[in-house]
Structures are given as C-alpha cells and as structure tokens.
Amino acid sequence: MNFIKRLAFIFFLSGSAFLMQGCSENDPGPKDVLLTVNIEAGYFTGLDAWLFISDGDGKTIDVRQATDSARIKFSGTPQAKVALTIFTRVATTNGDGSVWNGFGFRTYQQIAAGSTIELKRGTSNYTDQPDEIGTASFTLVNYDDSDNPEQGLFFTDGISTPYSVLDYSSYSYTGTDFSSQLRLREDPARILLTTYHNDIPVHQWLNDVIPGQEIELNFDSFIPSKIITVNKQVVHGEVKTMIGESFATGYIFCNLYSRQISKSSNLSELPKLGYLDGFDKYFVHAVLNPFHDRDNIYYSKAGTVPQAIHLPDFTYSISNDNLYGLSLNFSNDYSYKGAYFIKSVPESQVNWQLVSEGENFKAPAVPTEIKKMYPTLNVDDLKLQFADYTHALDGYPYVDYLRDIFASLRRNEYEELRYVVMP
C-alpha cells in the first residue's frame, strides 16, 4: 500500500497541477487580485496541498493552503506577471512505524496578472476493448525475413489494444512458414498485418475474418505502404490510427522494431515510416534514442500525416545545475521549457519542476508557512535531472499550454518537437 501511494504521488506530480490559505507579503501599498484559482472537488484527495505566487525575483507574494471546491484569490502589489507554485505532500507509514514523506513542487512562470486558473482532475478516455468471441487460424507462407516473426509482424484490428490480436502462446515458425491463432472481437473482423521488407514498410489486409476460419497468406502478396521520410537514424518510430482522443486502440501501420529485426534491412540507411490513406486521424511518433534521455529529440504529431519528419541539430550547455541559480543555454527555437529536479533518501523524496516560456528559470523561495509546517523539508541541494524544450510546430501558445495542463486536458491534434537534455 505504501508503494502504491508513493507511485500515485509521483504520477500526480508529472501529470497536472495543485493549491492553498494564508498570506505572505509585507510590502505596503495597494493590493490587486493577481491570480484566481478555482479548485475542482476531489483534486487534492489524500494530499496536503499549498499554493503560492511569487514575483520575478522568486519572492513570495501570497500563500494559501488548499481546500477542495474552493475559489482562491491571490492578492499583492501590482505585477505584470506572477509565478504559481503548487506544493503537495503525501505521507505513508512504513511497517516499522516510521513515516515516509513525498514532497512535490511545480512552478509555472510568466502567468499574466489577473488570470483565472481552473484546476481539474481530468477524465480517463480509456475504453474497455470488446470481449474475445473466437479465434481464426492463420498461416503466412514464404516468409523468411526474421528469426522472431512473432515480434516483427504486427496484427491489429482497429478496436483493441496492440499485441492482443496475435495469440503469442500458439505460434509456430519453421523458418519459412509462420502459423498462429488470431483472437477475434468482431464477426466479421478486419485485421491489418504490417511489417518491413527490404527497408520498406509493407502491409496486407485480412478482410471478413470469422471465428473458426483458416487463412493462408503468401508473403509475396504484401503491398508497400505510403512513405514518411525521416532525416535521422531514429531508434523508435510508429504510425497508427487514433480512436477519439485515445492512442491505445486502432491500427498500427508501421513500427520500426519490425525493420530492426528484419533480415532484409540495411540499418545504415535512413528509416522510412509507413501509413495507409483513408483514416480520419493518425498518430505519428519518432524518437532519436528512447533508451537515453541525453541529447534526445521526440517528434509527435496527432491528426494528419506529415510527408516528412525533420529532426534538427541542436546544442546546449549547463553552467549551473542547482535549483537556485540554474543556468542553461539552448540553441534552437522553442515554445516553452521545463526543468526537473528530484532527491530521494530513505525517509523522503522531493520533486520540483520549473516551467517557463522564454525567461530564465527561477525557483522561488519556499514560504515560511510551508517550512514551519514541514520542518524536515529541504530543497537546498536539489540538482537538475533533465530539462526539456518543446517547440510547438502548430503554433500552440504557452498560455494555452498552461490552461490545458491545469485543467488536465489533452489535445486531439498537435505537432511538436521535444528536446531533452541532461547535465
């Protein structure tokens, strides 16, 4: 149970935002309402939560403890922009009676004074896939392009999650003939089979498949798919359909892993992604090196299909990796950026995320009210784990990004590059 709570705490930090009561400004003079926060019921279930705003120098202007279903107005001397920090704490009791604390901060810089923020939990768009109604027998003959065909052949039916059509417990392979049972969830079902051959994404449809049917297909009948070019040697790439807002179900048109285990591939050549016309929405994803975050680029597009993917070169430098005094330089255009810090010891974990549009990262001081409430909290030695720079190729502005993050909204259509750098 403790482990589950700790995971919930970590994922809560990485997914949305938080809130708070009190006031910490000693400056005399007139007060303006600088920020209004509306908190949805249940937003902070199981958490202690505080929210505070600060100025461009990191000085606290106003601090509040969170209450669900509240509307909180933060006031202070006139400012053009403020930073909002959401602080949460979760505590679990270990088997030996000791207490583990999880502390989390998320700071959003450059919020226009006078703004109203809606903090919402969001809703899941996951839909249970239909129940299995039967199986069909499938044989692919004249196929000798992989020693692991069960991993290089992708079967999808458009309504269930990937890897749920092929029955991995039933397959056999002779070196030229591949056989397996296919799980069916419609009668009839329409199944797409995709793979790579000679560096080209290829496909074949299995139409009107019914339970109990025996299907035999010759690999020579596979058809080349339409091509999306990529300018770098990406390690991961995939194209699939989108069902509503969900990426979990649909047809997979290509997966570069098939190319990587295909005997006919020349991996020194630049990879090509494949797709088929005739679908409303697509999700296209390419990653330079998913196994290491250093110097990495992620390309993502939801909606229409790009004809080409261009991953730019970039440079960066980190002259100070401390939370206070953080200094990074990045060469390319970007729309907004984030910096991520974490420190774990046996009795606690501290996370801090800084989010900014264009100005330098600036971590605010922890308000006195929070320090007094949690005397074991220590952020002085937090070090940068990684930073990311997101270039919204569709022109998605920072103000809309903040609105959607706070309200836990996910866009249906977008195109972006995300650069990830590490010390």
Description:
With 423 residues, the chain is mainly beta. Helix content is 9%, strand content 44%. It has a 12-stranded mixed beta sheet. It has a 4-stranded mixed beta sheet with strand order 10-11-8-14, with no helix packed on it. Strands 9-12-13-15 form a 4-stranded antiparallel beta sheet. The chain has helices spanning 2-15, 149-152, 256-260, 368-373, 398-406; strands at 32-39, 48-54, 60-65, 71-76, 81-93, 99-112, 115-119, 134-141, 154-156, 172-173, 178-184, 189-197, 200-209, 214-218, 223-224, 226-230, 236-241, 252-255, 272-275, 282-287, 296-303, 308-309, 316-320, 327-330, 336-345, 348-356, 384-392, 414-421. The chain starts with a helix and ends with a strand. It folds into 2 domains: 1-121 and 316-408, no CATH class; 134-309, no CATH class. The radius of gyration is 26 Å and the shape is elongated. 36% of the residues are buried. The chain has 5 helices and 28 strands.
